Amino acid sequence: MPGPDDVAEPAASEQARQSGTPPQHPQPAGRDLDRAIARLALPALATLVAEPLLLLGDSVIVGHLGTRELAALGLAGAVVQTIVGLCVFLAYGTTAQVARLLGAGRGRDALAQGVDGLWLAVAIGVLVTPATALLAEPLVRALGAGDALAAPAAQYLRIAALGVTPLLVLLAASGVLRGRQDTRTPLLVTTAMALANLGLNAVLVLPLGLGLAGSAIGTVIAQTAGALALAAAVLRQARSSGSRLRPDAAGVLAAARAGVPLVVRTLTLRAALLATTAAVAAGATGATGATDARAVDLAAHQLALTLWTFTAFVLDALAIAAQALVGQALGAGDPDRVRRTVRRLVGWSLAVGVGTGLLLLATPLAGGVLTPDAAVRARLGDVLLVAALAQPLAAYVFLLDGVLIGAGDGRYLARAGLVVLAVYLPAVAAATSGGLVAVWIAFAAVLMGARAVVLGLRTRSGRWMVLGADGTSART
Questions:
Q1: Nearest-CA neighbor of 203 among 191, 215, 216, 192?
Q2: In the Cβ-directed half-sphere of 193, how many Cα atoms lie within 13 Å?
Q3: 6: closest CA among 342, 472, 395, 410?
Q4: Interatomic CA distance for residues 16 and 458, integer angstroms
Q5: Angle, CA of 468, 230 and 47, to the nearest 5°
Q6: How far apart are the first and last CA of the chain?
Q7: Could you report the per-residue pLDDT of 8-21, keeping only the tens digit for each?
Q8: Is 44 helix (H, G, I), strand (E, B) or coil?
């Protein structure tokens, strides 16, 4: 596996070479670099954790209405999460672009780019919101909602669709602030939004008797307030720097084009996760033919995937720091700083990966808290052993993914995602006959291993290290 010391010399763009742009920021090293990483990663981690807590608050309150309402919430929420997940490029792409321009000393242009990202989020939201509301019932039925759940799930989704535009604005505004190395403001706003959502749901759902619709209304209000707060923070900075606030058609279209490869990347990752769950279901049924055995495997898989997702939040916090720090160092035209930053971040990620692995190993000791079913706990312990051993590898993968996103290397990430998916699908299909643990071994070894190879080779090549404000002209 290529290591951080194997990063090659940058393929700097001719434009950046001719400009001779000097570094605009201090070059942190050693403890200073560690402090810079922690300053970005810790608030980013708290923000990532606050977002699922918002959904957890909904679930706890709606759960008091009944199982039917809770299931409807889960189906409608899955639709919204899928839409927002596909638009994560609004955060990732904007972070990379803003950080690079800031590193090149073009702070006004960085904020103008950020404003274009906000307008792109609004434009996508305006198109997606009515489509989601109109197609609410077909969408939830496509996820398996029967006649009993289709009506309440569609009702929730029609209201929740009004929160899609605010959520997309939240992504774009967070990307701007992260690119400016401000992860504290998104943390404060997201935390306030989660608390407001909890309070609104507590009042609207039961005391005012609005039920499931009240939960959707409360969530949309909280999301809208959070979006307005973060967008206002970006616009204040843009106004104070003298940057334009009006949308620039060319800039918005450029941001949209730059986001397409990241959408492809995200689709390949989601397809791999769906294929993994489908393989677990097929393996349980095919191996035993027993409904209860299928339920045990699926329950253990769901718990394991939830825990894996939680550790991914921890590792993604470092990837977010990588996006901002690497993008800024490339924009500053400082290849030595880029290499130092990548080496330090890889070291951090591997150490954190060992820590999350130990956490997963210890989780079965508290298995009774997760589930009272002894059969599920036994299966979960086997799966978590595989997941724990894979944590350092996953840490390496997530970190390098963040590095290449920060470098604006989206086209390679899209191609690499398609290659990895082509390798993984037959492997996970073959693992189906081996049951739950075999599927997770394929997930950990083949999916994570293939991603480590393609990302490691790219990092070693150095072709992603294009210096200067324009990071696209020399990259292939």
A1: 215
A2: 31
A3: 342
A4: 21
A5: 85
A6: 22
A7: 544 444 343 333 33
A8: helix
